[in-house]
Amino acid sequence: MKEKILSVGIDIGTSTTQLVFSNLTIENTASAFSIPKIRIVDKKVIYKSEIYFTPLRSAIEIDGESVRKIIEKEYKRARIQPEDVDTGAVIITGETARKENASMVLNKLSGLAGDFVVATAGPDLESIIAGKGAGADLLSKTKRSIVANLDIGGGTTNISVFKDGEIIDTTCLDIGGRLIKINPKTMRLEYISEKIKKLAEKMRISLEVNKEIRINDIKAITNRMSEILEEVLGVKEATEDLNLLLTTKDLKRNYNIEYISFSGGVADCTYEEDSYSNNFQYGDIGIILGKSIKDSILFEKFSIYKPPETIRATVVGAGSHTTDISGSTITFTKDIFPLKNIPILKLSEEDEKLNYQSLSQRIKEKVEWFNLDNGNQQVALSLKGVKNLSFKELQAMAESIIAGMKEILNLNIPLIVVVENDIAKALGQTIHRYLGYKKDVVCIDSVRVENGDFIDIGKPLANGRVVPIVIKTLAFGY
């Protein structure tokens, strides 16, 4: 039996705020004698809002009321009532996620309709979401290759690297179209970010707010930004300027990228540079930055893939619910359910082949993907897990998880582990014992999730043998 649900996606970014409505068709894809597996079998975008500049009260505060008015206005234009919406995602990304009242705005907007996925995306998680939205994961899987997606927005460039459909690396740089704002009529600077001002000073270019800027200086700065993108992708040797603009860890560059794609607002300026007659029609450097990237050696060194979605890559669809039941061998040390909107941190199969120390270090690195400026957030660690583990292998896995999740264990929240294979009971009990029975542990199995997913875990059923789960997937329109 197929069922249609209405989904909304709301993305509040550094530069823009937008909304998309989609019809999602869900269906039980399991056989008649199996546990139901509800999956999305079709998705269709039925309404795309205007793209608005994100309203701010100040340099450090989002104008939550104005954002809400934008969303309410677009609901009316789409002729959709909040009660008609079954599910959705509200995500704050880029520099906007760093604003002081980001969490408050998210919670306020999530009340518009339904039980939303609500997330402030840190730079690494945003990179993954944007890469999926651009289809870079699917391209890497189809081509059996390594693909890097550069999501270039107003404030940041989020880079995600995929191999055979799996995320293997991420980074984020302060490179974006609105890091310099200009009055198109007077050519006077209205805003310049501190990092770009430092970069300009190193180039012996003086930039001051309210002072006129020369077009040649702008081109010199955007050309340098483009060169730094060449550095981060390994085309040129890394310089101190790359370290200046990095907002998180650098790419490892121990792999060979074959394809690159561009998403985000500046991507449109890169792919369609000839369609802009006025370089400053948006009052920023986005169009010129796009042209600098187009003229760079990136277009010579890599095969270029143009995704179906560019500026809307981060949230083209919205939260879609996939209902499931966990396996029958689970561990939970206290009835702390329901647990809601927990982001997934998934280990790759290559990660799971690492030894104890390497695996724990890899988990630590991936936990950092979810770090925000105001600290850590709860995540659920996901792994495939080996069937028929020996006792020593089970102990080593438990020790790796505990060491890798140390920052999460320091928070007053339960440790959540989601396993694909049927080992949750033994693994969960081993972890609990190694933690001295002092930390709440939830370990469930027979669940397949992906990075970028969120999970809800409901109250236990069947005398505590299973728990109902909801996997919330950002449904992207490839």
Largest sheet: 8 strands, mixed
Distance between the termini: 25 Å
What's the overall average pLDDT, rounded?
Answer: 82
Strand fraction equals 25-35%
The total count of helices amounts to 15
Structural class: alpha/beta
Q: Write down the Rg.
A: 23 Å
Annotated CATH topology of the largest domain: Nucleotidyltransferase, domain 5
**Strand order across the largest sheet:** 16-23-22-18-19-20-21-17
Protein name: Ethanolamine ammonia-lyase reactivating factor EutA
Pfam families: EutA
Organism: Anaeromonas frigoriresistens
Reconstruct the topology from this structure:
Blueprint (H helix, E strand, L loop, with lengths): L1 E11 L3 E13 L9 E11 L3 E2 L2 E3 L2 E2 L1 H14 L9 E6 L9 H9 L6 E4 L2 H11 L2 H8 L2 E7 L4 E7 L2 E8 L6 E3 L6 E4 L1 H9 L12 H18 L7 H6 L13 E5 L1 H7 L14 H9 L3 H4 L1 E3 L13 E7 L5 E2 L6 E8 L2 H4 L3 H12 L12 E4 L7 H14 L1 H4 L5 E5 L4 H11 L6 E4 L9 E4 L10 E7 L4
Parallel strand pairs: 1-7, 7-8, 9-14, 14-15, 18-19, 19-20, 20-21
Antiparallel strand pairs: 1-2, 2-3, 2-4, 5-6, 9-10, 10-11, 12-13, 16-23, 17-21, 18-22, 22-23
Helix pairs in contact: 1-2, 6-9, 8-9, 12-13, 13-15
Protein name: Ethanolamine ammonia-lyase reactivating factor EutA
InterPro entries: ATPase_NBD, EutA, FtsA/MreB
Organism: Anaeromonas frigoriresistens
